[in-house]
């Protein structure tokens, strides 16, 4: 799939939102296509706010937004978006007394899946999809954190939405659970759009066809992960000792130091990663623009 | 793990439907959860448990007055069933807040107002269950051979109506105050208000503005005399339910013209029915009350068994068999010439507010009230509209015994002392197992003497402790042996001047010594 040929699923232009005197988002513009898009950014960058706007939980103060061809600012548009949306909040609450099946079924009802038989089939399907078929009858209070997160993902998947908005779905998961989640999300991205908020660059590398970097409420980058990595091309080098002037310098597994920043002349340059590109963006003032 | 995602099942996956159907689906889910809620289950157990226990242990009254039973459980229904609905509905409606799922639910399709509608509808299954329980209970009571009167459907319908009202209030509260503590406080306030109004601690007119109106007097009356505005009160509560439900929808963000119209209609019904509750008692009821008080015979059917005629208000005829068993029990123990005199057992109701309110205090007032009472039908023995509790049986037996012993109508709640007191108490106690049990129960809770007769009637008497002690000793002996002794000394025992000590000598039972003068009962009668 090429970007040019793809249809935009979300198009935002000039989104601005303030919480009192604090600007949460300032003039945010981006376009989302089919496939998995990662939303990277440090804590407080405005990722959750942006996702809540896309998920129709929050209206922007300014700017235009089109989600799945609808304007969420109008009641009808909002309803149309919600009918095709799956949303996993950063801290999805649960009803601890519900079983996994009951909780997903409850959410499915709120998604207006009214035919009981078809709904129950759908709930079984999504629980199976997240690997919780065997736990469907267990109360949520008895499930581990990873299982709960999968219940929340199953709830987001109910009704087979065209757009999935996932706010840091792998936070708090152990490595094995994180891998399982990645597997699920990767498959979800086939044939639908997934907007995935994370601050883990390896997740972006592993899952995302596109990436948006948000910092301080503004978009600092929008493009492919490779473009983001390329942002640090010629800025990553190895040395035998810590380099004081580098943006970041750490000792790697081979005992040598990996440095990101402005290399000295003759430095031994390395192939940059997404993480290097991200570091270059967020640790540098916003004078350098997107690599799009 | 992800095989189900390999192919998007879009063609077969259910698509969002219309909000009405989603609301009904949610209501069904919430309705089941509400029925399984501990507060609701506890309410059901508290409502049915004591009654079932009484039936299983044989303590239930087998002579229920249906026109009394139909409303007498309303307060309990409010407290435990309405309370269960209030708390369960409130917790359900607050669940998203309590468990922090609002962030997710706010992005789902079904709008909050429709969800609130579902929470309101979810109270209906419990309401229906309460209606079935109430109907089953009254049907079982009506099937008893000793049941009297007939139930009022509006009084019965108030039980589920109260549940619906409190359930709707729980949903409304959740929309107004995001804390779970308010619902129990509301329940407590409602219960205290209803109880205080019932005890006249609040102005009398207030009670009909509350969901349940406790009744004063608690004495059952024939259906024709009932003046509770049950139909209007039910309409008033129905209006309240509609108002509360509409307020809950508005609090959830619902705004439309139909809601305004429905609110206006509900307000009209509530105000209209609420005001209509205060209309004066109808002429028909007022006439029926006057007739029942002044000329009860016109409203009664009489049945003669031997020398005794039993007259009961319409609907109370099944009780004459029970009355006869008590009367026969008294007459069996007296000499034939005393037992053969004709008796009229007349069912009466008290409509004298002074008696009902306890404002007849002095001996002169009591004597005047008793004389007025006896003027209606001199010589008739009064029986009330309660039966099956032991005390009623004991009172009838006492009044019959008094008349057999003294050949006089029942006095104005004066003490009956001396041998007459001993004899009357023994005759009453030995009549049937129920009178014996009633006498023991009353004796155990009385001080200074044992009262016979309903205190809401102006006629009756009491037997002082000293005479009761002798009678109790007699009751521990075989009744046949005592009856033989009684018959032998009948003339002396029934003479007005025979003392309790002399009765003790004649009957062979100890009589306690006279208490100090200041503690003695004045025996003017």
TrEMBL record, chain A:
<feature type="domain" description="ABC transporter">
    <location>
        <begin position="10"/>
        <end position="241"/>
    </location>
</feature>
<dbReference type="Pfam" id="PF00005">
    <property type="entry name" value="ABC_tran"/>
</dbReference>
<dbReference type="InterPro" id="IPR003593">
    <property type="entry name" value="AAA+_ATPase"/>
</dbReference>
<comment type="similarity">
    <text>Belongs to the ABC transporter superfamily.</text>
</comment>
<dbReference type="InterPro" id="IPR017871">
    <property type="entry name" value="ABC_transporter-like_CS"/>
</dbReference>
<dbReference type="InterPro" id="IPR003439">
    <property type="entry name" value="ABC_transporter-like_ATP-bd"/>
</dbReference>
<dbReference type="GO" id="GO:0016887">
    <property type="term" value="F:ATP hydrolysis activity"/>
</dbReference>
<dbReference type="GO" id="GO:0005524">
    <property type="term" value="F:ATP binding"/>
</dbReference>
<protein>
    <submittedName>
        <fullName>ABC-2 type transport system ATP-binding protein</fullName>
    </submittedName>
</protein>
<dbReference type="InterPro" id="IPR027417">
    <property type="entry name" value="P-loop_NTPase"/>
</dbReference>
<keyword id="KW-0813">Transport</keyword>
<keyword id="KW-0067">ATP-binding</keyword>
<keyword id="KW-0547">Nucleotide-binding</keyword>
TrEMBL record, chain B:
<feature type="transmembrane region" description="Helical">
    <location>
        <begin position="233"/>
        <end position="252"/>
    </location>
</feature>
<feature type="transmembrane region" description="Helical">
    <location>
        <begin position="156"/>
        <end position="174"/>
    </location>
</feature>
<feature type="transmembrane region" description="Helical">
    <location>
        <begin position="259"/>
        <end position="279"/>
    </location>
</feature>
<keyword id="KW-0472">Membrane</keyword>
<feature type="transmembrane region" description="Helical">
    <location>
        <begin position="181"/>
        <end position="202"/>
    </location>
</feature>
<keyword id="KW-0812">Transmembrane</keyword>
<feature type="transmembrane region" description="Helical">
    <location>
        <begin position="117"/>
        <end position="144"/>
    </location>
</feature>
<protein>
    <submittedName>
        <fullName>Uncharacterized protein</fullName>
    </submittedName>
</protein>
<feature type="transmembrane region" description="Helical">
    <location>
        <begin position="38"/>
        <end position="56"/>
    </location>
</feature>
<feature type="transmembrane region" description="Helical">
    <location>
        <begin position="76"/>
        <end position="96"/>
    </location>
</feature>
<keyword id="KW-1133">Transmembrane helix</keyword>
